[in-house]
Write a structure and sequence with these properties.
- The chain is an alpha/beta fold and about 325 residues long.
- The chain is about 40% helix and about 20% strand.
- It is globular and about 55 Å long.
Length: about 325
């Protein structure tokens, strides 16, 4: 039985790999951009990056990559058998068996896979902001929106394993085009990618003139530029983050109506700026949730692990399944 495991959260923008002890201590961390190379076989470019991350972490403590449990948290529709059926924000890996490919590269039999937001939910339930909470929804705000749903103290996986694809709830009929092929999906309004879209729209409408000048054009704007500008007091940036906070509340209100959920945990890369949009989210929930005052208090908490929650949960999956 290994005392350490490696968890990798593979997102549409970057892959975060952590080396973690059984008690939750992080012993090593490696970040790398997620490749989107369509010239290679499905998932091959991504697998090479993940193998390099594993080898780098193992070298730091003189460990054998073939002997370390490894958990992969992957974005999109993950079947119960570990097959990544469809990944809108990582289409170069859609249909791939990333776990099998990584195991083959490393000469390992200790690689397991799960949906990235499910991993995040497991980490928060075991160690974080949902510890002791029987019913909650994990909402990961990254390139898109992922979800992990706990009901009666158990993770809901659904018939095929696809439960929790909450980012693809439609919130605007015939709205903004989504990489999934649909239109008006929630993640086009309340994720990192959604914030990028809202920001470019605001720039075209002349609502971010100072920031556009500072960055040398609207095409150079990044979400982190917007959050930095908001922290420096820009009213335009603050207003736009408040707008995103309203869209986040709209999706949460739908989930409240469907699941009767009283606790949400907000994680993913964008959660590091939660203080800039969650006040608006909490305020809007009171207007958007059906029978808000008749319900027990609805709480919206930030992840204890922030952008690390998916990778932390992937190590938990590795420990549990490979014990």
């Amino acid at each position: 039985m290994s005392d350490v495991a490696i968890g990798i959260d593979v997102g549409g923008t970057k892959a975060l790999a952590l080396l973690v002890a059984r008690d939750g201590r992080v012993l090593g961390e490696v970040n790398a951009p997620t490749p989107h190379d369509d010239q290679l076989a499905a998932g091959e470019a991504t697998t090479r990056v993940l193998a390099n991350q594993v080898q780098t972490l193992c070298q730091s403590l003189h460990l054998d990559p073939a002997s370390i449990p490894i958990g992969l948290g992957l974005p999109g529709m993950m079947r119960r058998d570990g097959h990544l059926a469809f990944a809108p924000n990582l289409q170069s890996a859609s249909g791939a068996e990333l776990g099998v490919q990584l195991a083959s590269l490393l000469g390992s039999s200790l690689v397991v896979v799960d949906n990235d937001a499910n991993c995040a939910a497991l980490a928060e339930h075991e160690w974080g902001a949902a510890r002791g909470v029987r019913d909650f929804v994990m909402v990961t705000l990254g390139t898109g929106i992922g979800g992990g749903v706990f009901i009666d103290d158990r993770l809901v996986r659904g018939q095929s394993g696809f439960a929790g694809e909450i980012g693809h709830m439609v919130v605007v009929a015939d709205g903004a085009a989504c990489p999934c092929g649909g239109r008006g999906c929630w993640e086009r309004y309340a994720s990192g990618g959604g914030l990028q879209r809202l920001m470019l729209q605001a720039a075209r409408e002349g609502r971010l003139e100072e920031l556009v000048r500072a960055r040398g054009g609207a095409e150079n704007l990044r979400p982190e530029d917007l959050t930095e500008s908001a922290r420096c007091g820009s009213s335009g940036a603050q207003a736009l983050l408040g707008e995103m906070g309203w869209w986040l509340a709209l999706g949460l209100s739908n989930l409240s109506a469907i699941l009767d959920c009283g606790h949400f945990v907000i994680g993913g890369g964008l959660s590091s700026a939660a203080d800039l949009f969650l006040p608006r989210t909490r305020e809007a929930l009171a207007q958007l949730v059906e029978g808000y005052r008749a319900r027990p208090t609805i709480t919206v908490a930030t992840s204890l692990f922030g952008p690390r929650s998916g990778a932390m949960g992937a190590t938990l999956v590795a420990f549990e399944r490979l014990a």
